[in-house]
Design goal:
Layout lengths: L2 H26 L2 E8 L20 H7 L4 E4 L2 E5 L2 E6 L5 E6 L13 H10 L5 H7 E8 L2 E6 L6 H6 L11 H7 L1 H6 L7 E7 L3 E6 L10 E8 L3 H10 L4 E5 L1 H9 L3 E4 L4 E7 L12 H10 L2 H9 L27 H10 L6 E8 L4 H14 L1 E6 L3 H9 L6 E6 L5 H8 L12 H11 L4 H17 L3 E7 L2 E4 L3 E3 L17 E2 L2
Parallel strand pairs: 1-10, 1-11, 14-15, 14-16
Antiparallel strand pairs: 2-3, 4-5, 5-7, 6-7, 8-9, 9-10, 11-18, 12-18, 13-16, 13-17, 19-20
Helix pairs in contact: 8-9, 10-12, 11-13, 16-17
Length: about 500
């Protein structure tokens, strides 16, 4: 090849490389500002994953600011994230994770396995007891390799550690957090996720900015404004007027109004469900000790009508408190709506004129569901008084077992039926009000069973026992209705497995 021809080839190659680099830079440059209206007040505690409750809602903030060793993201049910790979030993006693090279937190500090071990040991959220009972020790092999050693084989380790069943796999900056302390961290969090914290007005809004060094990709949208708007009608109006680009968890009537106005409504596919708890059923002195009263509640609920009013028929009525989309979920029909049978059961239990059931609490953010349930109960003679609460208060009282004898709750974190049984049906679960020895024994047996077929059979049995003993009154699986404004060209809701939130780094909006 002549020198002249070689020079021309080099010049052409250089021009192509420069063009490709410019195109990539243009493609990757974050731009624009998206406002997201939340259905609840954003709690500062959500900035710190260590105390996460058994709820999906905090992950809508945590997965924006933070990242985990393994987590769900588009195309991955449980994908390698901060960890580029992981392995399970043949005996099921050791899990080894290898970090991606050159990971950094938002403040520039390197992310190492020392941060991984610190974050796990510091975690005291909803699944902390279970995780810390199973994990014997965390071994830091080197700055990029860490091993978790279990006391005994536990098939659900990765379910709890690598999904939204818990926040234990999220990695926090040990050096920064140790220096500023827990309280200051909730005011100025640092993470390793796609967005870094900029500012907050407590109870009003949180402002985040794209982190250009995020390992997976540079986010498309430069600025996210997470705004607390607990009033459903206001959220709907904000999307309709363009004040917000996405409105989370719209109430049925508001979503229907937006549909008629031409606004896109997207229903989620996450693993959430509403149910009524009978907190005093194990107290022989309580009327709720009588299963006939609990059955009366089940027959009193017009689940189909509740679904229609609150969810535009997107939320299938439920017969068990494990969401039907979960692995090992028992697929059963809901109890029929039979108010006459409910009244008959009340009479048989000694309450022919109905019963004054006292206060009734309901998880905030879903007013139409709560109102419909209260109306259905009162209609058959189960007279309740609706007690409104702030969401943070409800969560705290739920954990501390301070809610009334009857209350409606919901849970949307992922996992499988084993993780749901662990939290709500097993007598030692963090959010269980009681339990039964035979169910507890089955739960412990399935927890160590590595044969999926045998495990599924035991979990099916547990779920059926909870139905036969009328431990709960399931209402319906939740498919949250989200309003999408016209500026959003790619909302990414439903792209993340069992999550109601967008894949934030993949969202796209018009400038």
């Amino acid at each position: 090849m002549s020198l002249q021809l070689w020079s021309r080839c080099l010049a052409l190659l250089s021009a192509c490389l420069l063009a490709a680099t410019a195109a990539t830079a243009e493609q990757r440059a974050p731009a624009g500002r998206a406002v997201i209206a939340w259905h609840v007040t954003i709690a500062p505690s959500w900035f710190d994953p260590s105390s996460a409750p058994p709820q999906i809602t905090p992950f809508g903030m945590m997965y924006a600011i933070h990242d985990a060793l393994v987590r769900p993201y588009p195309g991955q049910k449980m994908g390698p994230s901060l960890a580029e790979s992981w392995t399970e030993s043949e005996d099921g006693l050791t899990y080894e994770f290898k970090l991606r090279p050159n990971l950094k937190f938002h403040n520039g500090d390197p992310l190492t396995t020392d941060d991984v071990a610190f974050s796990f040991e510091r975690y005291h959220g909803a699944a902390a007891k279970t995780l810390h009972e199973h994990v014997k020790r965390v071994e830091i092999v080197d700055p990029r390799v860490v091993r978790f050693h279990l006391d005994a084989p536990w098939p659900d380790f990765m379910t709890f550690f690598g999904t939204t069943a818990s926040a234990a796999g999220i990695v926090l900056p040990k050096k920064y957090l140790t220096e500023i302390g827990d309280d200051a961290f909730k005011q100025r969090p640092i993470g390793a996720g796609p967005y870094k914290f900029v500012s907050t007005r407590p109870g009003i809004e949180v402002v985040l900015e794209a982190f250009p060094d995020y390992w997976r990709r540079v986010p498309n949208v430069k600025t996210l404004v997470m705004r607390s708007v607990p009033e459903a009608t206001t959220r709907a109006l904000m999307v309709q007027t363009g004040e917000a680009d996405i409105a989370y968890a719209l109430d049925g009537p508001d979503a229907e109004g937006l549909q008629k106005a031409g606004v896109q409504i997207v229903a989620t596919k996450h693993a959430s469900i509403f149910w009524i708890e009978f907190a005093k059923q194990w107290d022989p002195k309580s009327p709720w000790h009588d299963p006939r009263l609990r059955q009366a509640v089940n027959f009193a609920l017009d689940r189909k009508a509740i679904n229609h009013a609150a969810c535009l028929d997107f939320c299938p009525p439920a017969g068990v408190i494990v969401p039907r989309v979960m692995e090992f979920a028992l697929q059963v029909e809901p109890p029929p709506y039979d108010p006459a049978k409910a009244k008959q059961l009340l009479a048989e239990a000694g309450y022919p004129n109905g019963i004054d059931a006292g206060d009734f609490a309901a998880i905030p953010g879903f007013p139409t569901v709560a109102e419909a349930v209260v109306n259905d109960l009162n209609a058959v003679g189960i007279r309740v008084r609706f007690r409104q609460m702030e969401r943070a208060t409800f969560y705290a009282n739920w954990l501390e077992k301070k809610l009334p004898a009857l209350y409606m709750t919901a849970s949307g974190n992922s996992g499988n039926s084993g993780s749901r049984v662990e939290s709500f049906i097993w007598s030692k679960g963090s959010y269980a009000n009681g339990g039964y020895p035979d169910i507890d024994e089955l739960f412990l047996r399935q927890a160590g069973e590595r044969d999926n077929a045998k495990r599924e059979a035991m979990l099916d049995q547990i779920q059926q026992m909870s139905i036969d003993r009328v431990m709960f009154a399931p209402i319906m699986d939740l498919r949250a209705l989200n309003g999408i404004g016209p500026r959003v060209t790619k909302h990414t809701i439903t792209d993340v497995w069992m999550s109601p939130f967008p894949s934030y780094e993949d969202m796209e909006i018009k400038d």
